[in-house]
Amino acid sequence: MRLRSLLFVPGDRPERFAKAAASGADALILDLEDSVAATAKAAAREAVAAHLREPRGAVRLFVRVNPLDTALCAEDIAALHGLAPDTIVLPKAEGAPSVRELAQRLAAAGIDAPILPIATETPAAIFALGSYAAAGVALAGITWGAEDLPAAIGAATSREDDGRYTPPYEMARSLTLFAAHAAGVAAIDTVYPAFRDLDGLAAYARRAARDGFTGMMAIHPTQVAAINAAFTPSAEQVEAAQRIVAAFAAAPDAGALQVDGRMVDAPHLKQARRLLDRAEPAR
């Protein structure tokens, strides 16, 4: 499953679903949580459930439910009973116990879907990031958020004046990256909230891909093209990776080889294979 771009869509705005699906995003996150007012939760559930019953296109349909410790989550799951979202997004997840509990609730409701935890939205969640690798639950990836955590601890902001994360939130981002790779699942970076700043978004997404993230969430359809571009290896990168793989295939007993004027060894081969996996068309 290739997940470069995951676009949030408020669940109570079904008139936006088609436009969002046409944006080029790899997945839509039909939201029942933060983007939906309390008075609109029931309408959002009805709209999302109705959309899941319709014929599916190529874009995957994820659903973000409300936090586990709320009655709203139980109501969300009841509304999805017997339906088939491609993934359930869990906000305010706090490690393996959270995803295990959600998996049990989903199974009881006849919902067979992997889980994408938003894994840094509470202080306790930070200390549980390493537990996902042994959760024993199907995960679609691991992602993080930079808004709820500062609110939870009374911080003024998660960002410097120039947009960079302050040290506590840079740490949360890094731990999420390593937690996802330790669990062997997609590492999904958080949203870029300044949706009109497409140049800033493109630079952020390129840095995320450089750092080892494999995709990113979006809050507006105009962000999708830049995100997809950042997380799609270029033709030059693919060709270079293919040369490394071919060189080792031709010399399977070699520990290190010279390719394109530089020495490469096992870590470079691993990087090349990962890049070629990411370059595969969506399935």
Structural summary, described in words:
The protein is 42% helix and 14% strand. It is an alpha/beta fold. Strand 3, helix 3 (71-79) and strand 4 form a beta-alpha-beta unit. Helix 8 (198-211) runs parallel beside helix 9 and helix 10 packs across helix 11. The longest helix is centred in the middle third of the chain and has 17 residues, at 167-183.
Global outline: globular
Distance between the termini: 6 Å
Please give the number of β-strands: 10
Strand order of the largest sheet: 5-4-3-2-1-8-7-6
Which descriptors apply to this entry?
single chain; 283 residues; globular; 14% strand; two-stranded antiparallel ribbon; eight-stranded parallel β-sheet; 11 helices
Summarize the structure.
The protein is α/β, with parallel strands linked by helices and 283 residues long. It is built from 11 helices and 10 strands.
List the helices and strands and how they pair.
Blueprint: E1 5-10, H1 17-21, E2 27-31, H2 41-53, E3 60-64, H3 71-79, E4 87-90, H4 96-108, E5 115-117, H5 123-126, E6 142-143, H6 148-153, H7 167-183, E7 187-189, H8 198-211, E8 215-218, H9 224-230, H10 235-250, E9 256-259, E10 262-265, H11 266-279
Helix pairs in contact: 8-9, 10-11
